[in-house]
Design brief:
Distance between the termini: 33 Å
Strand content: 25-35%
Strand order of the largest sheet: 3-2-1-4-5
Mean pLDDT: 78
Shape: elongated
Structural class: alpha+beta
Number of helices: 2
Largest sheet: 5 strands, antiparallel
Order of helices and strands: HEEEEEH
Oligomer: single chain
Helix content: 25-40%
Length: 135
Amino acid sequence: MRVPPVLGTPAGQAGVVALMSVLMAVLLALFGAYGMWSVAAEAWETTGKVTVAVSCADPGREEVEYVRDGAPVRAELDACGHREGEEVALSVADGEVHLGSARTGATTDARVVGVALAVLAGMAGAGFVALYRRG
């Protein structure tokens, strides 16, 4: 008959719990930091010309025209305040057109902060479990 391994001291149990908690936090944070859970498609960068300009005070969306695979494409742009004929940098992903300088999501610089915060959260969780087990 096999005897299950038992950590005899509460300090040993707390140490194992803390180690596992920090390890899980680091692994989960790295999966998120390197984009393994990302569902956004890669953005394609190009330039286009504004064909329909809209003032920022008026409702509506601007329209732009850009070239993809040799064919001109017209699309709505979620921006305002440009002049007709103005050339703008565009980012195209999943059929949506955005200004090239207006980006959403985490950048590489912000991911490092996220990993550090996740590790600290894991350490805090491990400390909570250790205190909770003490009673």
